[in-house]
Alpha-hydroxy acid oxidase (Sphaerisporangium dianthi), 353 residues
Amino acid sequence: MTRETAPAPVNLRDFEPAARARLDPAHYDYFAGGAQDEITVAANEAAFRRHTLVPRILRGQGAPRLEVTVLGESASMPILLAPTAFHRLAHPDAERATARAAAEAGVIMIAAMLSTVTIEQIAACGAKLWFQLYIQPDLDFTASLVRRAEDAGCRALVVTADSPALGRNERGDRNRFHDLPPGIHCANMEEEGKVRQVVLSPDISWRHVDWLKETTSLPIVLKGVLHPEDARLAVEHGVDGLIVSNHGGRQLDTVPASLDRLPLVAEAVGGTVPLLLDGGVRRGTDVVKALALGAAAAAIGRPALWGLAVAGQAGVERVLELLRNELANALTLCGAASPADVTDGLLGGVAWK
Ligand code: FNR
């Protein structure tokens, strides 16, 4: 009897059905899902489809160089791993596999506070790390997390600001998936043998950002900025970088696509701080469009989880390799020598709905 094998994924989207076939259905839904009607989840990818690229020809640039420096950190390409919780649901090696893949690929991993192994264990895997933080109302505990991230070698703090409460994920309600399975927990929240409750608090405000500035000398990146006025406030409060993001459509539904907010945020900050973008990035051309609209780099969330579910470290590595190859190809076809060479002059406008 011959054993049939599924064709290997040839792009990031192919990884999703391959991951789905391996995952517990409730865990797949946790990763794939978004808030309520998932209008924003769909909008994120659709926004990239609407934008067109108009390549320049005969520029003789040779093969593009992909390296970038973001907030003083060099990376092999303008693509980061966005922070995503609970990697142990995707693979037994959990965040360690993701971190090893990031190290191998030379990209920055934003380690989620809600990881299923500790930040110290992730740091031991050798990747360039930033640490994502949900500021906890218990500021002493938050400060202790910041110290641990600093001591583990994280080079920036990413403060997720779009989560004063948890978004309403109805797939989770249907699956009754409200707790992690036995044996899996938020490893960073463990204290004296007990796991602390994670608090997403509507009391968190700019005052806490000011407090954090006093508490750490690490650069602070604010994640979840969509409104130009908030972008201006962030700069006023001394924030070092922004991530234009709607949390992959998992928080407030019917929020616009993050790509559609990027030019407004870019205009508001006028180049004072670097901008990153996440939400719906699935193709090399998506990265080019994000760069053209003002981002210094883009981040991927779900595609890395799909890679992790399919083949652990090797799966995440393959996802990054496919995206790297697509980005290099897209830049070459655009006549661009590097990410810095990408300007809005390459954009042909929004051509179709
Ligand atoms: C997330 N995201 C997220 N963000 C964050 O700041 N802290 C977190 O703990 C998580 N957890 C999380 C879990 C899962 C399963 C997903 C899919 C996403 C949001 C993430 O950082 C990023 O904003 C989006 O995932 C980007 O969109 P794409 O690439 O998934 O479309």
DSSP finds twelve helices and 14 strands in the chain. The mean pLDDT is 97. The two ends are 48 Å apart (CA to CA). The domain at 12-335 is CATH 3.20.20.70 (TIM Barrel).
